[in-house]
Fold:
Amino acid sequence: MKIGIDLRMYSSQFTGIGRYCYELVENLLQIDDENEYVFFLNEPEYGGFLDMKKEMLDKGRHKAVKVDARHYSLGEQVSFLKALKKENLDLMHFTHFNAPMFYRRPCVVTIHDLTLSFFPGKKMVKWYHRMGYHLVLKSIVKRAKKIIAVSKNTELDLHRLYGFTRRKTAMIHEGVGDEFQELPIKTVADSMERYGIDKEFLLYTGVHRNHKNVVGLIGAFAKLKSEHGFDGYLVITGQENPHYPEVRETVEKLKLKDSVKLVGLVPEKDLIALYNGASVYAYPSFYEGFGLPALEAFACGTPVCASNASCIPEICGDAAVYFSPQNLSEMAEKFYELLRNDGLREHLIEKGKVRLQEFSWQKMAKETLELYHDVVDKKSDS
Structure:
């Protein structure tokens, strides 16, 4: 088969879809020595991909194509479409829903979440943005021969929106990178010193958008300090979003500037160290597509205190303490319980290690490759 993969979000440093693209390629190339792959990328990822995969690409079976078609742009619908047609693919894998609407050859699509359907927030504020989103999403799930949902919750949400997807959706969980692991104490201490962390702390990683409930987390942290006497930090990673100034505004309003550290987007090596150093990983989201940070915390030996919403209980199972994301007092109480109960912490750390065994990028790639064959084999039979 000649298989195309949309890697316009490819990066080992990105959260979510970027990581998915990176791990999909890394693991497919390890297990598949039969099929030919064409990888579609934008700059600067294209140049980096050429450097990293030079030896593989020089052998001539696989190729990388530079398309420079930004997501949600006209170029995506025109120049990307032209590049796809030129390759005459047996199967195209769109790793995100935003695919050219006039591509008509066999394809599969991965739906990571439906956040924009249920929590649009401050994105797509214009009516034509919302119309475009729904048109592109419906178009690709209708045309795709198979749809990959990364969690059962995402699969059910998709069925709620588009009942016709029931007959062609496959649920394939994601995994966690091997680099997420328990680190030596000295390595962790060095990273904590770089960020001025000299007390125990709760950690949050991710973007600052409304469905992530970061403002709620800060409110619960304020209660943890005032009602339970916690004297540590809340460390929040992730690039600050100018569309969501309420995160920093809430820190200032609640007079928490000395206790809440907004450390920005940190290098992966520091992120892993912060996971290791945290007393609790806080996961307060209203909505998630998969829940990768929880697995990363498990891998780093950090207990997870999480929202009971969306896919999070599906991913965490019995390896987390749960709270209602709307109830800030309950959130604070669960944080305090986990911070002060060493037995519970150790229990959850062990449960997390067991839970982690159910998820792997290798398994994801194997199941995805089987899905590719299933789609093309059915096409050949028809």
